[in-house]
Write a structure and sequence with these properties.
alpha+beta, Arc Repressor Mutant, subunit A, four-stranded antiparallel beta sheet, disordered N terminus
Length: about 280
């Protein structure tokens, strides 16, 4: 078995054995887990899902999972970083311009069930997994178009399952522009901007969302919300005509004290001090 360095964009790993429970863990890469043989239980975030031969599981960065094995189990892990598909966009067919593998890996409902791939695709999937394992023993699969298209075929099967279930591919595709637009449109409605609500809107798991935001924006989700709210509040204060209590209610703060604490955390001064500075500067 060939195990590539974990920092490679793509690696294939096979594990076969029997232990009572694997350790509950998370990681920073995406992971497809294929069950060649065996049975047991897969724990993913808050879900408990039985597994058996031919099952496929998707695990995104930041999610926690482990396996409890009832029988000797043969796993194949296909692990890839975000950079893997990003670097091969020029090879991607039009079918994957929308509904990219990363988006599929983040879809919440695909985590709450085991992916049962039926005939004849189950045989194709098994052959594809075997092809990748054999190929990885002889070639550097990270740079191989052959391996890339084999992996895309797996995601093609997943898209067929979504289509057969009548599910939308996603409610909204998660990307910078749409996410920021959604936040700005709903900045006055705290309920719509909770991690749970945003995750539901973009059809990804809540456990993944915070990790995704920090990795892509280099700032925590809560810090971004606080910074944007304070920027808008600054404008309200500079225009004048509104009391702090009215502004606190507008932005969903529990009271003026809550607003003042957030404002000071971001700006290093209280709203009242900011008003005084604005008046003096004029």
């Amino acid at each position: 078995m060939k195990i590539l360095n974990q920092f490679e964009p793509l690696m294939i790993e096979e594990i076969e054995g029997l232990c009572e429970t694997s350790s509950h863990h998370s990681h920073t890469y995406y992971e497809l887990v294929y069950i060649n043989s065996g049975k047991g239980v897969h724990y993913l975030n808050d879900d408990t899902i039985p597994y058996q031969d031919g099952d496929l599981f998707l695990v995104a960065p930041g999610e926690f999972h482990s396996f409890e094995m009832e029988d000797m189990t043969h796993f194949t892990y296909i692990k890839f970083t975000e950079a893997y598909f990003e670097s091969k966009k020029h090879l991607a067919p039009d079918e994957f311009k929308i509904g990219s593998p990363e988006i599929l890996m983040e879809m919440k409902w695909l985590k709450e069930v085991k992916i049962c791939i039926k005939e004849p695709c189950n045989h194709i999937l098994k052959s594809t997994i075997n092809n990748l394992v054999v190929y990885s023993k002889h070639k550097n699969i990270s740079n191989s178009p052959i391996a890339y298209y084999q992996i895309l075929s797996i995601f093609g099967m997943i898209k067929e399952i979504i289509k057969d279930r009548g599910e939308g591919l996603f409610k909204q595709e998660l990307n910078f522009e749409k996410l920021i637009s959604f936040i700005h449109e709903n900045i006055y409605n705290r309920d719509k901007l909770s991690v749970k609500a945003v995750s539901l809107c973009f059809n990804i798991s809540p456990t993944y969302f915070s990790n995704y935001f920090k990795r892509h924006f280099n700032i925590s989700y809560q810090e971004y919300l606080d910074t944007y709210r304070v920027a808008l509040i600054e404008k309200r204060l500079e225009i004048g005509g509104l009391k702090l209590k009215q502004i606190a209610e507008e932005f969903g703060f529990t009271d003026v004290s809550h607003l003042s604490k957030t404002f000071k955390k971001i700006k290093g001064k209280s709203p009242k001090d900011h008003i005084k500075e604005t008046v003096n500067s004029n």
